[in-house]
Design a protein that fits this description.
The chain is mainly α and 381 residues long. It is built from 16 helices and no strands.
Length: 381
């Protein structure tokens, strides 16, 4: 918990951590109003799915050029510009007047969020290197905390007549705090990196990190989308427990990220990834027993295991010798988003053709592959 204490007691660390929380506060507030937007625009689920695809398209559009922009602007200024653009873009989807404007709004929201995501992770990487402090995992804990705060905001829905008003209030508060804190990181730039063309030796560990990111975030997306259905159809849990799998997963995800930095400092990032995949593998084993309470504990273990892996991948990727930190993080983040978006529908086809249990056996196999892949990352971490 030392990293959490560091964040809560020093503005230099709280400032970037608050950007992490901000990103999920904006996104989470939009997410709780998706049913209302669908009803107001009178679009069906297929149309809504296409509209949400444009959000993902915006994310992937910015990824190839994000590192170049970050290096040109400086990572501190890039993070601040990301905050400004995301604050403005967060208002657009709830102001959309028709289907076309919704797709355009979500595309811009995705672009701004993707840029902010890469900028803030690069910022934390640079501060860690400069100060010799570990707080990447706790910063990701603040991202999870932002989602929890946005979810609590759903209790305001019966009392808020206009969804844009709710979002505007969130934007004003979140932006105001960022405006006050921006001076803590605005001056920070990434250290220049001497590069000598394409180096396959450097590319190999980055590609391995990207593959691990794809698998882990794909597993996260699968739990988010499929845990309730698994408890309902496979474990035959009572209705009041169907959402508990995601709740258990989210709770341990947040807790693990607040605890992760201290452990990482002691055992190293590579061992941390291995340990996280081992815990997640134990979680899948519990889920596959099909007993409801065991499945719930399994989802909790998966959340705990996965919680520390992505922050450590960013930490490793941001420190690869001869590679700009922003480029390494952009590659890892892009692969992770790809896994998060692609895995759930792929598993859906697998579940339809075979069974939901088979889908989770595949996920367990992927967790095992991550554990084995840590050997390829080497001993340095």
């Amino acid at each position: 918990m030392n990293s959490l204490k560091l964040i809560l007691t020093r503005r230099r660390y709280f400032a970037p951590a608050w950007v992490f929380a901000s990103l999920n506060l904006w996104f989470g507030t939009w997410a709780i109003y998706i049913p209302r937007v669908q009803a107001r625009l009178e679009i069906d689920k297929a149309q809504l799915g296409i509209a949400i695809f444009f959000l993902s398209l915006g994310v992937f559009t910015i990824f190839p050029i994000a590192s170049r922009l970050i290096n040109r602007l400086g990572v501190g200024r890039a993070t601040w510009y990301g905050v400004v653009s995301s604050s403005l873009a967060a208002l657009l989807p709830l102001l959309a007047w028709d289907y076309i404007s919704l797709m355009a709004a979500l595309y811009l929201f995705g672009m701004s969020n993707g840029f902010t995501d890469i900028s803030m992770n690069t910022l934390v990487t640079e501060i860690e290197k400069e100060d010799q402090q570990h707080f990447m995992s706790a910063a990701h804990g603040f991202f999870s905390l932002g989602g929890v705060l946005a979810g609590l905001g759903s209790f305001l829905i019966p009392f808020v007549g206009l969804p844009p008003l709710h979002m505007a209030a969130v934007v004003v508060v979140v932006f105001g705090i960022n405006l006050y804190l921006r001076r803590q990181y605005l001056h920070i730039t990434a250290a220049p990196v001497h590069q000598e063309g394409v180096n396959l030796g450097l590319l190999k560990p980055l590609l391995l990190l990207a593959v691990i990111s794809f698998v882990v975030m794909g597993g996260e997306g699968a739990v988010v989308d499929w845990s309730a259905l698994y408890l309902k159809e496979v474990s035959q849990a009572p209705a009041w427990l169907w959402g508990s799998g995601f709740l258990a997963f989210s709770t341990t995800m947040t807790l693990g990220r607040f605890l992760g930095d201290g452990i990482s400092r002691k055992i190293g990032s590579v061992r941390m990834v291995g340990m996280g995949s081992l815990v997640a593998l134990a979680g899948y084993a519990a889920v596959l027993t099909e007993w409801a309470l065991a499945a719930l504990s399994g989802f909790a273990l998966i959340g705990l295991g996965f919680s520390v892996i992505i922050p450590e991948l960013f930490r490793i990727g941001g420190k690869v010798p001869g590679v700009d930190s922003s480029k390494g993080i952009a590659l890892i983040a892009g692969a992770g988003y790809g896994g998060f978006l692609a895995t759930p529908p792929l598993l859906g086809y697998l579940a339809e053709g075979y069974s939901l249990q088979v889908s989770f056996w595949v996920l367990a196999g992927c967790a095992l592959l991550v554990l084995l892949a840590t050997a390829g990352l080497g001993r340095k971490g």
